[in-house]
Amino acid sequence: MKARILPALEEHPFEAPAWLRTKHRQSSWNAMHRRVAPLLERHERWATPDRDFLDLYYSTGGAGAPWVLLLHGLEDHANTAYVLGMRHAIVDAGWNCVVMEFRSCGSELNRARRLYHMGETTDLAFVLKWLRPRLGKAPLFLLGFSLGANVAAKWLGEQGDTAAETVHGAALVSAPYDPTIGAANIHKQLGGLYMKAFLASLVPKAIAKEQQFPGALDVDAVAAAKHFWDFDTHVTARLHGFDDADDYWRKVGCHQFVGGIRVPTLLLSAADDPFNPAETLPVATAQASPWLYPVFPETGGHIGFICGESPAAARYWAEEQILRFFRLAALEGA
To answer: Do 163 and 18 fall into the same domain?
Structure first.
């Protein structure tokens, strides 16, 4: 299967256009310049076993057509520009999409004494358990972006052969394969601008969580956080049972799980990703596995891959490539 599908993907290489050449412009385009029309959707709120909730958003393109379960990135949600753009692409292709928002990422802070993190797979497992029977015989694909890609990869690797009972295939976009390297690297980019943007929402959310559960967090330490090591040590680790940020990053980075994946999975990352350096890409693991389809362009940034003749005619190559891969995988597995 790999010998047939990978060449078909490589026939459509990515090349950053002259008007959006740098990794930072590629990485920021979706957030700063992309405007996506609202999408007709159905919202469901599912109660979780720990008396919390998960919000799911459905967009349908065709009865009986394949489904894609989409997991967004850090501090994003169902209507973040790149997520909404991908949902449009899926529906326009006649397929169906459901987005699972991670806890606390929607319009309301979650209720439990926890948040979400890149290694937390129990919510994904819960959704898949109840979603899969509802879809009948339609194929189901798993699609993760950034943090969501890590969650998807970790779940797939943990499940091994049994994942094929639930999902037909997967795609991982801009995954943080080794956060022990990537987390420190983000702090260095653009004078810490990315880091400040993330902390601008993460810190108030953590303080609100402490107000829900007094004594759960050290508010002074949280408020003083300047980079991911601070936040993940004083919030993520404390709420989720890790020793500190280093312990968290070592245990959840998906580079150690991708080798266990046993369904056709597209690995789509740019070598110039400012969040995840090229040295973290699992090149050898992907080459050795019949299940992994590595597409690692030299350019593209983080969840970028924008091309086209001009800003007015921008195209979203990652969306095209993901759907191309899913169609090929569906045909091969039919």
So the answer is: yes
Q: What is the span of the domain harbouring residue 230? A: 188-252
Q: Give me 319's structure tokens.
A: 């969306």
Domain shared by 165 and 236, yes or no: no
Write out pLDDT tens, residues 185-223. Answer: 998 999 999 999 999 999 999 999 999 999 999 999 999
The pLDDT of residue 3 is 81
- What pTM was computed for the model? 0.97
Q: What percent of the chain has pLDDT over 90?
A: 95
Q: For the chain, give the number of residues.
A: 334
Q: Which among 252, 283, 300 is the end of a domain?
A: 252
Residue 184 has pLDDT above 90, yes or no: no
Residue 292 counted as domain residue:
yes
